[in-house]
Design goal:
Length: 320
C-alpha cells in the first residue's frame, strides 16, 4: 500500500490543522515560519498531512471570492479557533485521490532531471545539447545507438541541439504524451499541458510526428501544436512566450486573468483573480523568480488590491 492510501495519525492531522490556523492569521514571524517548514519536511506523513491541507484550500476556490476570503480573514473572531479546530476532521476525510497532487507526483520526483515550481534549470546533455527546464518540469533522457530521445514528462523546455558526436548521426527527438518531434538541427521550445503539446521553432526546423495522424514540418519562426488526435496549423512564433528563459513573464495587452493563470505556474499555493477584474488589460515585463514582487508591481500600476493569507500561500487579486 502506498503512503497516500494509508490513514494518517490523527495527531499529525491535528498539527497540520494548527499550522494552517496559525499561518492564516498572518501573525507568524520568520522563525515560526521556519519551524513550520521543518515540521512539514520532517517526515513523509507530515508532508502528506500538509498536502491534504493544500488540497482542502484548493477546494475553497469553488466558493465565491468574498466567502472564500472571509473564511480566512477573521483572526479576532472568538469562534474561529473552534471552527478551525474541526479542520483535522476534514483533513482526515480528504479524498484519497490527493495522491495525484502535483507536489507529490512520483513521476516527477523520479525523473532524470527536474525543475521545481518557481525555478529553472540548465542541463547540458552527453552529446553537448543544451536544455533549459522551466518551472515544474521533469524530463528523462534516453541515448542509445539509434537515437537521442528526450521524454518530456511535464512542463516546458527550451532545447538547443548539438551535432551528434557518435559515428552514426542519431536523430534528436522529443517525446510527449501526444506525439513526437524530431529536430532538424535547431533551437526550439516544447510545452506540454492538458493533453496538448505546443512547439515553437526559433532556428532550423522540427518535424512533428503523431502516430496514426501524420507529420508536419515546422520551420524557424513558426509555431504549432498537436494532440493525439491531430496537428494544429502553423502560426508565427510569439517570442514573448519564451521570455521565461530570461526569468521574465511578458504581457502585451494581456487579460489579467490569463496573466494570473500563467504566473501561478511559478509559485506554490493558490493564486486567484476576482472575475470583476479578470478582463483588465495589462502590459509589461515581470520577474517570474519573485512572484511577490510581480504582484506588488501590478498593484502599484493598476487599480487592483492584493490580499495574502497563510504566509502568501493564498493570494487574491480584487478591485482596488
Amino acid at each position: 500500500m502506498q503512503l497516500h492510501d494509508q490513514a494518517l495519525d490523527p495527531a499529525i492531522l491535528s498539527e497540520a490543522a494548527d499550522w494552517l490556523m496559525r499561518l492564516s492569521e498572518g501573525s507568524v514571524n520568520d522563525a515560526e515560519r521556519q519551524d513550520w517548514e521543518r515540521w512539514r519536511a520532517s517526515s513523509p506523513a507530515h508532508g502528506q498531512a500538509w498536502a491534504r491541507a493544500e488540497l482542502l484550500l484548493c477546494k475553497l476556490q469553488g466558493l465565491p471570492p468574498a466567502l472564500a476570503m472571509a473564511a480566512l480573514d477573521r483572526p479576532n473572531n472568538p469562534s474561529r479557533r473552534a471552527a478551525m479546530g474541526k479542520l483535522a476532521t476534514l483533513l482526515a476525510l480528504a479524498p484519497l485521490a490527493w495522491g495525484s497532487w502535483k507536489l507529490n507526483d512520483w513521476q516527477q520526483w523520479t525523473a532524470d532531471y527536474r525543475a521545481p515550481v518557481g525555478e529553472r534549470r540548465d542541463v547540458t546533455l552527453a552529446d553537448g545539447s543544451h536544455v533549459t527546464l522551466n518551472t515544474d518540469t521533469a524530463i528523462d533522457v534516453y541515448f542509445d545507438e539509434r537515437q537521442r530521445l528526450l521524454l518530456l514528462r511535464r512542463g516546458e523546455v527550451l532545447v538547443q541541439t548539438a551535432a551528434d558526436p557518435s559515428p552514426v548521426a542519431r536523430p534528436f527527438r522529443v517525446q510527449t504524451s501526444e506525439g513526437r518531434m524530431q529536430a532538424l538541427g535547431t533551437r526550439f521550445s516544447v510545452r506540454e499541458e492538458a493533453g496538448h503539446t505546443c512547439l515553437a521553432v526559433l532556428e532550423g526546423a522540427v518535424r512533428i510526428e503523431v502516430r496514426g495522424i501524420g507529420e508536419q514540418v515546422v520551420e524557424a519562426g513558426q509555431a504549432s501544436g498537436f494532440t493525439a488526435r491531430g496537428i494544429d496549423g502553423l502560426k508565427p512564433v510569439d517570442k514573448s512566450s519564451l521570455a521565461w528563459a530570461r526569468g521574465m513573464l511578458m504581457a502585451d495587452n494581456m487579460r489579467l486573468g490569463d496573466f494570473i493563470n500563467e504566473l501561478s505556474r511559478y509559485r506554490n499555493g493558490v493564486l486567484r483573480c476576482d472575475p470583476a477584474i479578470a478582463g483588465l488589460r495589462i502590459s509589461g515585463a515581470f520577474p517570474v523568480n519573485n512572484t511577490r514582487r510581480t504582484l506588488k508591481m501590478l498593484a502599484q500600476t493598476y487599480p487592483i488590491s492584493v490580499t495574502s493569507r497563510l504566509g502568501d500561500y493564498w493570494v487574491m487579486l480584487a478591485p482596488a
